[in-house]
Amino acid sequence: MKKVALVTGASRGIGRAIAIALAEYDFSVACFARDREKLDETAALITAAGGTASVHTGDVGNDEDLEKLVAAVTDLHGGIDVLVNNAGITEGAAAKNISPARFREVLNINLVAPWVLSRAVQPVMKARGGGVIINVGSTYGSTGVANNSPYCSSKAGIEGLTRALAREWARDQIRVICVAPGFVKTDMVGDNFAGTDVEKLVVSRIPMKRFGEADEIAQLIAFLSTSKAGFVTGETLVIDGGQRSLI
To answer: Beta-carbon neighbour count of residue 236 at 10 Å?
Structure first.
């Protein structure tokens, strides 16, 4: 029987790449996001390559949607072995121009939702003898950056959440890991800078002199989801072309 992976934000970018990579590793993949049309595209790519995928829509910021999601995936696939908390939003503005409501919204999507979903899958994983939770963080969580305080705060929180849950759930054979990408070519980050002076400046600060590819992030996450990485937990693995090592 195939193991089951649940990926949030699977409709595009890194999330779609993660879903496809996990299918390549022979997981049945439950894809979650708000955009049904884009999710169907992800599922179609997986099934066309011989994999198994299901589509689930909802709002990652809604606790009830997340609880229903876990129940639906468990009913359909028989359980959940891997959870990838990938869905996230950003806010690029000076602190004085960000409302408290918007700050809370970013934290709710990027930090509270992964906690809610992890908490919901824990008993399901425990009943199956263990599992893996991978939180997609960011190098901004440890380095910080001006004009993006909600995002940096949420990603710093994800690292702390990862360490705490890894300690708490190790007895249940549940590994919890954070993967922290740097600049990656996606429509959320890299594509916005394509061909600009900003891109040239960023690339000049990356030792490998390029942005990362979504599939490079996805392949690391897929590997960490397997038993071959069975002694890795509570860690943040940075994948940024060496940029953070220079700071």
So the answer is: 19
Residue tagged active-site, from 25, 140, 151, 169? 151
| Residue 245, token pair as written in the block | 């090592």
Rounded CA-CA distance 46/106 in Å is 30
What amino acid is encoded at 241 in this protein? Answer: G
Examine the pLDDT at 77 and tell me if it is beyond 80: yes
pTM for this entry? 0.94
Domain count, the chain: 1
Any idea what the CATH number is for the domain that residue 28 is in?
3.40.50.720
How is the chain split among helix, strand and coil, in percent rounded to 5?
Answer: 50, 15, 30
Domain that holds residue 18: 4-246
25 flagged as catalytic = no
**CA pair distance 20, 219, nearest whole angstrom:** 9
Whether residue 210 is predicted with pLDDT greater than 90 in this model: the reply is no
Query: How far is 176 from 131, CA to CA, in rounded Å?
Result: 9
pLDDT-derived band at 245, boundaries 50, 70, 90? low
